[in-house]
């Protein structure tokens, strides 16, 4: 089953929200919180890989290719992933990503709405 760009963006938004809630626990160096954040970052990277570049290009300030590469790093080099990098990404980059995803969803919804009213 192929998922739409909108579905993938909703997945990313959900993962961003979850990461925000896990950050509180991550401050105490909680391994479970670190693992949860890492898994959600992998989910985000996987979703990004499956969204058409034309959709992502309307948010050029987000490093989409780096997000996909981070997914690969977290998946294949899990044994040397520093907690500090995961925490810094979660705290510093995820809020901006979440805002961009909301804007992308709004654009998709507006386009679908205008297409529906045109028919």
TrEMBL record:
<keyword id="KW-0540">Nuclease</keyword>
<protein>
    <submittedName>
        <fullName>DUF86 domain-containing protein</fullName>
    </submittedName>
</protein>
<dbReference type="Pfam" id="PF01934">
    <property type="entry name" value="HepT-like"/>
</dbReference>
<keyword id="KW-0597">Phosphoprotein</keyword>
<dbReference type="GO" id="GO:0110001">
    <property type="term" value="C:toxin-antitoxin complex"/>
</dbReference>
<keyword id="KW-0547">Nucleotide-binding</keyword>
<dbReference type="GO" id="GO:0016787">
    <property type="term" value="F:hydrolase activity"/>
</dbReference>
<dbReference type="GO" id="GO:0004540">
    <property type="term" value="F:RNA nuclease activity"/>
</dbReference>
<dbReference type="GO" id="GO:0000166">
    <property type="term" value="F:nucleotide binding"/>
</dbReference>
<keyword id="KW-0378">Hydrolase</keyword>
<dbReference type="InterPro" id="IPR051813">
    <property type="entry name" value="HepT_RNase_toxin"/>
</dbReference>
<keyword id="KW-1277">Toxin-antitoxin system</keyword>
<dbReference type="InterPro" id="IPR008201">
    <property type="entry name" value="HepT-like"/>
</dbReference>
């Amino acid at each position: 089953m192929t998922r739409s760009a909108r579905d993938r963006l909703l997945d990313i938004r959900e993962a961003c929200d979850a990461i925000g809630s896990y950050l509180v626990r991550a401050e105490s160096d909680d391994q479970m919180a670190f693992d949860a954040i890492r898994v959600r970052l992998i989910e985000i990277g996987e979703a990004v890989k499956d969204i058409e570049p034309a959709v992502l290009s309307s948010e050029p300030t987000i490093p989409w290719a780096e997000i996909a590469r981070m997914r690969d790093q977290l998946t294949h080099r899990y044994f040397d992933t520093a907690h500090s990098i995961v925490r810094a990404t979660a705290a510093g980059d995820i809020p901006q990503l979440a805002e961009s995803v909301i804007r992308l969803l709004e654009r998709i919804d507006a386009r679908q709405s205008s297409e529906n009213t045109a028919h």
